Amino acid sequence: MEIKDKIVVFGGNGMLGSSVVRRLQKQGFKNIITVSKGDKCNLLNLESVNDFLKSEKPDYAFMVAGLVGGIQANNTRQADFLYQNAVMILNVLESLKNYSQKTKLLFTGSTCIYPKENPQPINESRFMMGPLEETNKGYAVAKGMGIIGCQLYRQQYGINAIAAMPTNMYGPNDNYNLETGHFIGALVIKMLNAKKSGVAPTFWGTGKPRREAMYVDDCADALIFLMKNYDKPEIINIGTGFDYSIKEYVEIAKGIVGFDGEIKWDTTKPDGMFEKRTDISYLLSLMPEYKPRTFEQGLKDVINIDFKIKV
Ligand code: GFB
User: Fold this and answer.
1) Beta partners for residue 262, in sequence order
2) Are 108 and 163 in contact (CB under 8 A)?
3) Among 42, 132, 157, 186, fewest CB within 10 Å belongs to which?
């Protein structure tokens, strides 16, 4: 990747996309075009994607756009998550084939594509090896199809498409909507509110499921590394390698925010997958310097950046 190369970031306004842009800029890249919902091109429309790629012909494209959300958004809008995520990646692949075959594409899957149950940590070989978690079936099928799409467009048309499997993320520019967002974003808001009001926050489920939590900039750095250095069809996990239970995250956040009151649990809400810790040995074998930050550090960073509060 040369500094002058043209780089498109589909989904450039989202949490991950904006982080990719930030980290690319930090490395000196200047020729970056961000595409987000409602501007430049509509990823749900093939003609629109064709027009865009025909005129831009980027050297590199990060496909991190998608309809995303936490467990409740996924669970209640399964058809939308299936349709939109499937169509977006298929349009990008088909359009690259039609008009920009030299573009290198990096597509992000997700660790929730792996089967509901796995030996821990989850190795890349688990892809398509079992039944999916019901709460995010639509999203997982669409993202899994995107991965197969990358492999097949490479095989048939020689498109250099690679696919990474990021774990759960949080960080600057997260979705802080308590209904549609992910757990860590909700944890930050609920804890800051509890500290301010003294009212007991309510979390979802039993608190027993285990999750990784990756600071988004750590993921973006790994994605940029892979864009520069990885050219294979095999998927590659990007995680932290360590996880905590939801209850443990709540305890850590209580300590960092300085709230020591009661916590309530709404067990009518789903738990989702029990655990999904990633095996990151493949990534580490290529990028030994990869060192995701601790959750404690990341939580302090995001509260500081997004809420201007020093904790
Ligand atoms: O992050 P999250 O929404 O998604 O939920 P998933 C993680 C866990 O946190 C679940 C619990 O066990 C929730 O029940 N939880 C506790 C809460 N309190 C809350 C809360 O206030 N808000 C939320 N959101 N969760 C997603 C998939 O699954 O993982 C997506 O649905 C995506 O497809 C993403 O792939 C990475 O980790 O369960």
Assistant:
1) none
2) yes
3) 157
Q: What confidence tens digit (pLDDT) does each residue in 222-242 have? A: 999 999 999 999 999 999 999
Residues annotated as part of the active site = 139
Q: Which CATH class is domain 7-173+213-242+278-293?
A: alpha beta
- Ligand 1: nearest atom to the Cα of 140: 33
Q: How far is the CA of 169 from the centre of ligand 1 (A)?
A: 11
Rounded to whole angstroms, how far apart are CA atoms 273 and 295? 20
What is the chain's mean pLDDT, rounded? 97
> Atom 14, ligand 1: which residue's CA is nearest?
271
Q: What are phi and psi for residue 107, nearest 5 degrees?
A: -110, 140
How much distance in Å is there from the Cα of 295 to the middle of ligand 1? 16
The one-character DSSP state at 60 is E
- Please state, for a pLDDT cut of 90, what percent of the chain lies above it: 99
Cβ of 182 less than 6 Å from ligand 1: yes
Backbone angles phi, psi at 187, to 5 degrees: -60, -45
